[in-house]
Design goal:
Length: about 500
């Protein structure tokens, strides 16, 4: 083992008697990027948390630069120049970007805070990473992708020598993700930082990796270094079978000329939307595409009663449908899978099964009492459709990130709504289970539901949508693209045309 490295040897870890890491060896070295892959619940985040001092372990060793170390906390780790950016971000949303950058290490002279210097440092940092954000901007006003970028650059700024990134690109557009990973790689080489990156988007990262490891059920099943890393081998190791066999071909659906649209949106305006026009016909899946900030998520939030409509109309089955709140939207038969599961997704302490049936508990009440068994059996049957792994009767917060996402998707199915809005439905979901989720979404459309899908992954939209509406700068014209023969490039071209905002050029309408 090279002396200059950070490694674990023979790591074992169990939660409540269930072993999730089985004698794992893993290593990162300065100047190299190590891709860590595996299915949902494989143990990737647990491994990273242990290496970053955030989680204990049962046996094995952490070896920093040739010597065994004990890390009792993330602070301990940071003092050894080890840092981790988690799937769920740690930024304090009420504080400004500058305050977050300097949290716990404010610059001061004789007790007086050097506000100007801290702001100037933050401005340089933002500029260096090409982020059009003001140092005084409050984190809560930033979009999720922006926050993700901020958290990464904060850790780079804290002189981390060993940096772990847990799904840093999940909510980023493909190009932004590529830029970010290229940036991480450049910094790794220039500043001699050892980086480990967890992601489910294998293609986007492999070009930037020097080493690759795949975990399956807490066991290392694949390990290779450049030039011997083979994408197909990595994917097969993650899925446990050939992905081609698992993939279901998609033939776009075309509504018949006589059918009436179920959803009609006419010149819809809100604080951030400048005229959205679209129609969704029974049986079809409408994809929404656009750059970050183009208004896709804002549109979904508006239909779900989270933002006020200032002009225009929304008609569902011919009836005006202006929900005043999410509970009003649910009553009107609207379901919304949010892109930020922690913020407005679930109740962390509640069991996975109860979280699934939460919006429709009344369905399982018998004489004012909840029929627990019936509710749980139903929730289990929903979750089994896309292999949700983990302790389903335990709190949802103990599930791995991707399995939490599957549980929330399960809730959407359970809700059995007529208008289904899915914002990044496979965020953090492994490549095997993605196909199962696509199939369930297609099933909803076949059942006549009105399905709208937002995804930053062009490949995903092309695989699942029948037609694609493109948002630009808060507006969406009624003309759509047929998904059938469309290419990723054509889709991107459309998003950039019509004076479409480049990411960050109009911060007031971030997604
Ligand atoms: N605090 C906890 N309590 C109980 N079980 C846990 C806890 N944290 C993780 N687990 C379990 O450990 C296993 C591994 O989870 P981990 O989060 O490491 O998976 P992952 O590979 O990161 O998955 P994903 O791709 O979905 O993020 C899962 O079965 C999960 O339910
Ligand atoms: Mg994880």
């Amino acid at each position: 083992m090279p002396v200059d490295s950070y490694a674990v040897r023979g790591l074992e870890k169990s939660f409540s008697g269930v072993r999730v890491l089985h004698g794992v060896d893993f290593e990162i070295s300065p100047g190299r990027v190590h891709g860590l892959f595996g299915h949902n619940g494989a143990g990737k985040s647990t491994l990273l948390r242990i290496m970053a001092g955030a989680c204990g372990y049962d046996s094995g060793e952490l070896i920093l630069n040739g010597r065994a170390v004990v890390l009792n906390s993330p602070r301990d780790a940071l003092s050894s120049q080890i840092a981790c950016v988690y799937q769920e971000l740690r930024l304090i949303s009420q504080l400004s970007v500058t305050q977050n950058v300097f949290l716990g290490r404010e610059l001061s002279v004789h007790g007086i805070r050097m506000e100007r210097e801290m702001r100037a440092h933050t401005a340089r940092l933002l500029e260096e990473h090409d982020l059009p954000i003001l140092p005084d901007a409050l984190v809560r006003d930033l979009s999720h992708p922006q926050r993700q970028m901020i958290e990464i650059i904060i850790n780079l700024d804290r002189n981390a020598r060993y940096l772990f990134l847990d799904e840093p690109t999940t909510a980023l557009e493909v190009r932004r993700a590529e830029e970010l990973l290229a940036g991480v790689r450049r910094i790794a080489v220039e500043k001699q930082i050892g980086v480990a990156v967890v992601t489910h988007k294998v293609s986007e990262i492999l070009d930037h990796c020097d080493d690759a490891t795949v975990l399956t059920g807490g066991v290392v099943v694949y390990r290779a270094s450049t030039p011997r890393i083979d994408k197909n081998e990595v994917v097969d190791a993650i899925v446990g079978k050939k992905l081609e066999e698992a993939r279901i071909p998609h033939t776009p659906f075309s509504a018949s000329a006589e059918s009436n649209p179920r959803l009609v949106v006419k010149n819809l305006r809100t604080k951030g939307l400048r005229g959205v026009n679209l129609k969704v016909y029974p049986g079809e899946i409408l994809g929404l595409y656009g750059l970050v900030g183009s208004g896709r998520s804002r549109f979904c939030r508006t239909l779900y009663g989270m933002e006020k409509i200032t002009a225009g109309d929304v008609l569902f089955d011919g009836v005006s449908c202006h929900a005043s709140s999410p509970s009003d939207a649910i009553k009107r038969g609207v379901a919304y899978l949010t892109e930020e599961r922690k913020k407005d997704g679930f109740i962390p302490q509640m069991s996975v099964l109860k979280n699934v049936v939460l919006p429709m508990l009344s369905r399982f009440r018998r004489f004012f009492l909840l029929d627990d068994r019936e509710a749980d059996t139903y929730a289990r049957s929903v979750l089994s459709r896309f292999g949700t792994q983990g302790q389903l009767s335990g709190p949802i917060q103990s599930l791995s990130g991707g399995n939490q996402q599957k549980a929330l998707f399960g809730r959407i199915i359970a809700q059995n709504a007529e208008l289904v809005l899915l914002d990044e439905p496979t965020k953090g979901v492994d490549i095997g289970a993605k196909q199962d989720i696509y199939e369930v979404i297609r099933g909803m459309a076949r059942d006549g539901k009105c399905v709208v899908v937002v995804s930053t992954e062009e490949e995903e939209l092309l695989q699942i949508a029948d037609r694609i509406a493109v948002f630009n700068n808060g507006a969406c014209p009624e003309e759509t693209l047929q998904a059938g023969n469309l290419t990723v490039e054509q889709l991107r071209m459309r998003a950039l045309s019509d004076g479409g905002a480049r990411p960050g050029s109009s911060p007031e309408i971030w997604k």
